[in-house]
């Protein structure tokens, strides 16, 4: 086993060998692409094809699987990171999950009331092995959501880390990293769930079927819902 083998292997959560994951990866990349080009194309697929939805969290392994996120078309940052890692591994690119606590101002009144803080723990990103080094990418916030909030979407070129923008287009603070949690070959699900319960209370993990994140965003930025 090589040093990179754990970051190429399918797991229960990072199900890179699932037929839907393999098919989606194949639809985004070309056989002639190099690793950097593939990683970039896969990044934009996850960023924009999968809507960011922090209302749908869930407690089970199924909720976090890459194949589940593909099927639902919406997820919060951790399952989106899991999907991106799975697509990279499915395409032969080593990838590992990274996590950090962040202060995030891309939120809604409903979410702020639910969390009682603007600190998001275990915010997910992915480190991909490109051209003999690890490069970080965060495919969480889709383009249309960023446009509604007046934020610059995170771009990724496969050479430079793409973690966050400190400020929005008006110069207001958008996000800051306040604690690194580390990088992992597999999803540390039980630790994430335990910490979410501890910090926010058990209700944070209950999906609210009556709430719609995009509808709340449209209302708060003054768009017709």
**Strand percentage, roughly?**
15-25%
Tell me the span between the first and last alpha carbons. Answer: 53 Å
What is the 3D form?
globular
Classify the fold: give the CATH topology.
C8orf32 fold
Query: Number of folding domains?
Result: 1
**How many strands in all?**
6
Quickly count the helices. 9
H/E order of the elements? HHEHHEHEHEEHEHH
Helical fraction equals 25-40%
Strand order of the largest sheet: 5-4-3-6
**Please, what is the average pLDDT?**
90
The top-level CATH class is Alpha Beta
Rg from alpha-carbon coordinates? 17 Å
Runs in which pLDDT lies below 50 for 5 or more consecutive residues are none
How does the helix and strand content classify structurally?
A: alpha+beta
Can you walk through the features of this model?
The protein contains 9 helices and 6 strands, in the order ααβααβαβαββαβαα. It has a single domain (5-204), classed as Roll (C8orf32 fold). The longest helix has 15 residues, at 35-49. The protein has a 4-stranded antiparallel β-sheet with strand order 5-4-3-6. Strands 1-2 form a two-stranded parallel sheet. It is α+β, with helices and mostly antiparallel strands and 225 residues long. The model has no long low-confidence stretch (mean pLDDT 90). The termini are far apart. 38% of the residues lie in helices and 18% in strands.
């Amino acid at each position: 086993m090589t040093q990179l083998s754990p970051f190429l292997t399918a797991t229960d959560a990072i199900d890179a060998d699932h037929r839907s994951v393999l098919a989606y990866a194949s639809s985004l990349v070309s056989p002639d692409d190099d690793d950097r080009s593939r990683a970039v194309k896969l990044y934009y697929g996850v960023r924009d094809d999968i809507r960011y939805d922090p209302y749908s969290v869930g407690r089970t392994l199924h909720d976090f699987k890459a194949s589940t996120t593909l099927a639902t078309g919406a997820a919060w940052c951790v399952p989106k990171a899991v999907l991106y890692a799975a697509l990279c591994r499915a395409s032969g690119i080593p990838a590992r999950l990274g996590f950090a606590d962040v202060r995030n101002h891309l939120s809604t009144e409903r979410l702020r009331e639910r969390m009682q803080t603007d600190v998001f723990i275990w915010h997910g990103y992915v480190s991909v092995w490109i051209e003999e080094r690890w490069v970080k990418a965060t495919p969480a916030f889709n383009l249309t959501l960023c446009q509604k909030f007046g934020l610059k979407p995170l771009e990724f070129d496969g050479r430079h880390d793409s973690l966050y923008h400190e400020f929005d287009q008006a110069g207001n603070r958008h996000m800051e990293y306040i604690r690194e949690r580390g990088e992992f070959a597999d999803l540390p699900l039980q630790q994430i769930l335990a910490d979410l319960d501890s910090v926010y209370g058990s209700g944070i993990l209950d999906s609210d079927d009556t709430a719609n994140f995009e509808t709340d965003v449209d209302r708060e930025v003054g768009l017709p819902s």
